[in-house]
Amino acid sequence: MELVACAGGLVACAGELVACAGGLVACAGELVACAGDWSLVRGNWSLVRGNWSLVRGNWSLVRGSN
After folding, report:
1. CB-based contacts of 4: which residues, under 8 Å, 6+ apart?
2. Do 51 and 38 meet the contact criterion of CB atoms below 8 Å apart?
3. Pairing of strands 45-49, 52-56
């Protein structure tokens, strides 16, 4: 599992876990946008900003500011 720095956060590139504090991350050929929150992503793609998410794929677990 490869770790990549993401605007002060970390990205675990295994096509599953993404955690970052902002910016865009290309992971396993997929694009993930993060804005202060974290998401557990597996599937086609997930767009995350603040407390909402737009998800297309198998599943996504998204946590907001709390």
Report:
1. 10, 11, 13, 25, 27
2. no
3. antiparallel
Helices and strands in the chain, H and E counts: 0, 9
9 burial (CB, 10 Å; 0-12 / 13-18 / 19+) is middle
Residue 19: beta bridge partners? Answer: 10, 38
Name the residue ranges covered by the structural domains of the chain. Answer: 2-63
Q: What are phi and psi of 50, to 5 degrees?
A: 65, -125
- Calculate mean pLDDT across residues 31-55: 45
Structure confidence at residue 20 (pLDDT): 52
| Prediction pTM value | 0.20
